């Protein structure tokens, strides 16, 4: 099983960053090791094959997110991708078609799947290079996030939720080291129980539950992106933004950057107080929305 997992990692690395929208299926190839390994998986028990398909699906999703942080895949999209890998594994086992045919069909399915779930991708990549440049998604030190988000650690209302906390959860870990009850959500798989794997559009934030909610270059950055995009899911973002605000305790605050002027202007002033701060070296602001009552 370990060697199969290595093969899958190697295969994904082999096609890393290649542009699906160029109509050049020959760009995508299966390494010989992958072909050999997948042809021999029939000796595995069904549970191991299922686990391998799950692993491949998760790795592929991770790779898509690495290439473009604005891709989004809901449960249905993930299940559809899994079905594509079920077909692929079966094709290698039955060997009815040549490797070239299997590869070409798989590539077409992946392209259709990506186009169905993120239509903007075709627009930006159909005239791009063979290797696409990743859309950066960096993680920042806890101190930089504290400065940007205007957090006063000594006054922080608890518990704290970091929305899009990053793979390392730097801010959550730093706050916990200071004795503050803090949790993070992100779409990565975590082994730390304070960091929860969840899509921020699907997470149940609860009501009146959090003292402070933070999101540094996370939720609001994507909300802006969806607001500007023709096929953007701005309604779900708007709904989630309100869910986050209602998840605050009275007196609690949502600190985020960049700011969201197009929705902040509609906030009910009787319910929410908005403060904004310039950030040195950036052309956007930090917003802090306080739940008043
Ligand atoms: C630019 S990084 C910032 C990470 C962290 N806040 C920091 O400042 O270091 C944006 C984060 O948002 C996460 N993210 C993007 N879309 C998400 C989604 N739909 N649900 C949960 N997290 C998401 C990414 O995985 C990434 O970790």
Structure commentary:
- The protein has helices spanning 2-14, 32-39, 46-67, 75-94, 99-117, 120-125, 142-149, 170-177, 219-228, 234-246, 261-264; strands spanning 160-163, 182-186, 195-197, 210-216, 248-257, 272-278, 285-291.
- With 293 residues, the protein is of the alpha/beta class.
- The chain folds into two domains: 2-125, no CATH class; 142-291, Rossmann fold (3-Layer(aba) Sandwich), CATH 3.40.50.150.
- α1 (2-14) runs antiparallel to α2, α1 packs parallel to α3 and α4 (75-94) packs antiparallel against α5 (99-117).
- The termini are far apart.
- Bound molecules: S-adenosylmethionine.
Quick structural summary:
The chain has 293 residues and is an alpha/beta fold.
CATH architecture of the largest domain: 3-Layer(aba) Sandwich
Coarse shape: elongated
Bound molecules: S-adenosylmethionine
Number of strands: 7
What percent strand?
5-15%
The number of helices is: 11
User: What is the structural class?
Assistant: alpha/beta
| Poorly predicted sequence stretches spanning 5 or more consecutive residues | none
- At CATH level 3, the topology of the largest domain is Rossmann fold
The CATH homology group name of the largest domain: Vaccinia Virus protein VP39
Helix content: 40-55%
Average pLDDT number? 92
> Which CATH class of the largest domain?
Alpha Beta
């Amino acid at each position: 099983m370990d060697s199969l997992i290595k093969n899958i990692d190697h295969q994904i690395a082999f096609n890393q960053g290649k542009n699906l929208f160029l109509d050049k299926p020959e760009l995508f190839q299966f390494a010989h090791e992958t072909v050999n390994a997948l042809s021999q998986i029939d000796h595995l028990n069904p549970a191991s094959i299922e686990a391998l398909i799950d692993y491949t699906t998760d790795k592929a999703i991770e790779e898509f997110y690495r290439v473009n942080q604005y891709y989004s895949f809901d449960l249905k999209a993930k299940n559809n991708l899994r079905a594509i890998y079920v077909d692929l594994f079966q094709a290698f086992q039955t060997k009815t078609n040549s490797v070239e045919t299997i590869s070409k069909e798989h590539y077409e399915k992946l392209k259709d799947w990506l186009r169905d779930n993120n239509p903007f991708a075709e627009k930006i990549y159909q005239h791009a290079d063979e290797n696409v440049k990743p859309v950066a998604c960096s993680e920042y030190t806890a101190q930089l996030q504290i400065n940007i988000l205007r957090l006063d650690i000594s006054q922080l209302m608890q518990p704290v939720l970091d929305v899009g906390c990053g793979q390392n959860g730097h801010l959550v870990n730093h706050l916990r080291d200071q004795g503050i009850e803090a949790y993070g959500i992100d779409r990565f798989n975590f082994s730390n129980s304070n960091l929860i794997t969840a899509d921020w559009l699907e997470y149940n934030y609860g009501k009146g539950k959090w003292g402070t909610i933070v999101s540094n270059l996370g939720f609001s950055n994507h909300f802006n992106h969806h607001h500007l995009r023709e096929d953007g899911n701005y309604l779900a973002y708007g709904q989630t933004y309100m869910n986050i605000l209602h998840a605050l305790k009275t007196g609690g605050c949502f600190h985020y950057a960049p700011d969201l002027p197009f929705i902040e202007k509609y906030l009910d002033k009787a319910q929410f107080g908005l403060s904004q701060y310039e950030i040195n070296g950036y052309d956007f602001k930090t917003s802090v929305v306080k739940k008043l009552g």
